[in-house]
Every structure is written in structure tokens, then in C-alpha cells.
Design brief:
Two copies of one chain form a homodimer. Chain A starts with a helix and ends with a helix. In chain A, helix 3 runs parallel beside helix 4. In chain A, strands 4-3-2-1-7-6-5 form a seven-stranded antiparallel sheet, with helices on one face. A six-stranded mixed sheet of chain A has the order 9-10-11-12-13-14, sandwiched between helices. Helix content of chain A is about 25%, strand content about 35%. The first copy, chain A, is of the alpha+beta class. Strand 2 of chain A pairs antiparallel with strand 8 of chain B, so a sheet runs across the interface. Chain A binds a DNA duplex through strand 4, helix 3 and helix 4.
Chain lengths: ~260, ~260
Amino acid sequence: MDFPSAQKAIQSALVQNKLCVVVGNCQVKYQGRAASKLSEGDRLLVIKPDGTFLVHQKSKMNAINYQGPGACVTSEITPEGLRVKAERQKPMHEVIDVIFRELQAVQAFAMQDDSNLLLFGSERELSDLLSEDLDVLEKGLRPIQLESQSNKGFADILARDKKGRLVVIEVKRRDAGLDAVTQLARYVKELSKRKGETVRGMLVSPHITDNARAMLENQGMQYVKFDYEVGFATGTPKTGDSAKITGLQKKQKRLGEY
Amino acid sequence: MDFPSAQKAIQSALVQNKLCVVVGNCQVKYQGRAASKLSEGDRLLVIKPDGTFLVHQKSKMNAINYQGPGACVTSEITPEGLRVKAERQKPMHEVIDVIFRELQAVQAFAMQDDSNLLLFGSERELSDLLSEDLDVLEKGLRPIQLESQSNKGFADILARDKKGRLVVIEVKRRDAGLDAVTQLARYVKELSKRKGETVRGMLVSPHITDNARAMLENQGMQYVKFDYEVGFATGTPKTGDSAKITGLQKKQKRLGEY
DNA sequence: GCTGGGAGAGGCTTA
DNA sequence: TAAGCCTTTCCCAGC
């Protein structure tokens, strides 16, 4: 494909709010929060109507260079080849320059899509489910809903144990590391200061690193391991010190019946 | 495009290790760590030779559904349309099902690309540069190299001030939040315990949130703002309480002369 | 609508 | 392999 018609195709795609796909041999330069250069090779360039700009190599999941929605995309023909540029001023001045020496394809597509993803089994749900049935974590735990909760940077779940003590429960869907512990410690400290009473800290996750567990227990907080059975599959019942969240499956089924 | 030839094109792309792009109206189901469903709409599907599988909508930077390298991709024709499936067993069983009702395009590309990204201006570099000249942060600061440094979760830079006190310096290339402060506090605490001496904590970044600054100063630690001039551009010299890292530009230039 | 702030999720690197 | 750490993020709340 020759450069002039390619450039025309790209411009016209941009104007018509189409998604544009360009494949060819190019080099890429980036300048913004950092600076980078990618020498020549075959790449897939995706330009979306919202300004999203993605440069993909033949492998790896992530784009090697990209720019999010809002970028201003322009193209021109230079002595070196076809130059496609994505520029953004907003959070910071950033420019990606893609210079094609050779083109395999340029194509534009009108895309109609008003759908949103329906997601089941997210951490939020897990948190909700636990709120509904905290007994799996500890007998007698009662969830409480306070204004302080779910505010900005606050704990996942707030509860009172059977002795009436406040319990801050931090839920992690994945491995808990030192971060999770310090975060929880912060919540506990802050809350106990605000309420003027003793506050327990509880960390719930499928796994915890050794260091994190040590630090957690050093600070008098507790860890509850849970098995997070994803999807509709019914796992073999397990025994041990881990709480199994079975409610999730029910909830998923309910959500599935939309 | 009709389904049989589309399917043939996809299969042949997979076999020949080509990158394959499919555009059309489809719905998407995912089952794995969570479960999701995306109802019908026009999407861009990218299948890379390494198994990477990306479903993009017409806007947003990230793929709405994806699977990383190693996925096993298959296709078949069903009564509902052309079904393309990406499946992975490794860390966990995950399946993405894309069912096309209508196709706008199917294309495959042989891609040759051996290049790697050259990146300048990473946090690591910044840290190295600061190590070389800590005076920009505070007069008389001397870097020290101990075994404890750069180990697992340890401080960016360790130094002694002109009075001989240990200083832990945490460098953030971007905004510093509460995380950065608690992390630094952890380093300080741990180190002072290990060394049995007073340790100062210093946080260096281009910006800090109000809460973070308050917490930092509450704990007797200090903040040093710095201007991080990215790229080769020469900014107007600034005055104020901020340290300006000019060495970076030199370093970048050096790196640029590969 | 924009900005600030906090927190999440995945990949990367090193021990 | 495991842990820590980083990010060219994202989302929510407040202005």
C-alpha cells in the first residue's frame, strides 16, 4: 500500500470516528513521563475513535507503546515514511511517534457497541458476601454500617465481635503482602483513634507471604485464610483453618439469571 | 465475509504463526478467576502467535477481555456463528469465548520484530543518579553502600548526614501517597532496630498528597520535592524549595548514544 | 467537567 | 518459585 492513500485512509477514519488498524514496519519514539525508542520492526497499530493509541508487537499481552483516550492523532508523510503521531497535553505533555517505512495494511471500521461487561465474582462482591455472613470468619461477628465505612480510603468491612469490640476486616482477593498489612494497620490505628476504643484488625485472603504474616501477628492482628472458589464449579469440601466462601456460588447463580 | 472462509483464515493464521485480526459483531463470555459476559457489539479481536488474545471495544485503552501468552486458541462454526475460543490451564483454568454473529474483516499478518524497547528515565536510574550526588537533597549527605541495601524490600538509598546520622531515602518518580510514607516508615523502623541507632527518613518525589505529607511529618520524617525534567528538553531553571535533578538529562544523553 | 486521592491488578526483576 | 515493587491505571468523591 502506498503512503498517500494510507494517509488518506487514516485521516478519513479519524474524521469518521472509525477504529483504524495499521500494520507495517515502523519505528516508535515516545516522549513523556519517560522517554523511549523502539527500532524498526513489524507492528500493529490500533487507533480508536476516542484517541486511544496502541502499538503492539507480535508477542506479549501489553502494547509496547500506547496512549489513552483523549490523545490527538495526526498523520503526515515525511521523507522517512508515513508518520503517525499521538499527542496529549492533559496530565502532561506526551508524544508517541510511529514512523512506517513499509505498510502491510490500513483498515478502518465503524463500530457500534453499547454493551457493558457483566462481571461476577469480583472482590467487591466477595466483600459484600462476607458482610452478609461473617460467621465464616469468626463466630458471632456482626457487620456494622457506619458513615466512616466505604468512604474514601477506608476498610473493606467493619464489624463488631461477640464481645462488642470493633473489628476492621481487610479483604484481598489475591496474595496479601506487606502492603496489605500496613494498610490494615493504618485503618486500625486511625479508627481506634477516632472512636477511642480498642479495634481489632483482621486480614482475609487466599494467601499471605511469610513476612506479611509475621508483621501482622507482631501487631496483634489476625489472619483468616479463605478458599475462593471461582465460577460455578463445586470444589471438594476442604477442612482446615480456612473458611470457604460458598455463598459466592449462589450469588453468582442469582446474577447469572439476568 | 462468510464464516467458513473466516474460520479457515483464522486457523491458517494460527498454524503459520501469524498475527490475526478479526473485526465483527460478537458476544463474549469469560470464565476463570471470575466470570463475565459481554453482550453483542462490534469488537476488534487480536490473536498473536504467542497465544495472546485481546478483545477490544471501540473505546478505552484496555482490552475488555484478554488472555496472555500461552493461551490455546481454537475456532469452530456453531449454529450461533463463528466461535473463537482461548483457553488456558496453567495458573488456573480460564476460557474466553467470542461468538461472532457477523464479520467485517479477518486478516493475518506475518510479523518480523526483534527489537526491544529502549527506555530512559526509569525510577531506577533516578535513584542511581541521586546516589551519585545527594547534595541536591541536603548538604553533606553521603551515600553508603551496605549489604542491607537493595536487598529484598529495602530502601532506595541509604546515607549518612553531616552529623553522621543514618538517613533512609525513598525515591518516588511520581506522586507520593500514603503508601510511600508507610513504606518509608517501615524501612526506618526496621533499620533503626537493626542498627540500634537513630535513623532519619526522607521522601523524595515530584509531588506528595496532603495526607501523606501530614503523616510523614507527624512521624518526624522529611519531604524533599524535586523537579523531574523528562527527556532532552531543557526546562527554564526554577527556583524554590525543590531540588532539580539535572544530572538525569546528561545520563539520558549518554544512554541515547547507544 | 475536572482534579485529587486512594487503592487495585498484572507484570517485572531478583533472590 | 516466591516476594517485593512498579505503573504510560482506574475509579470514586468532591469541587
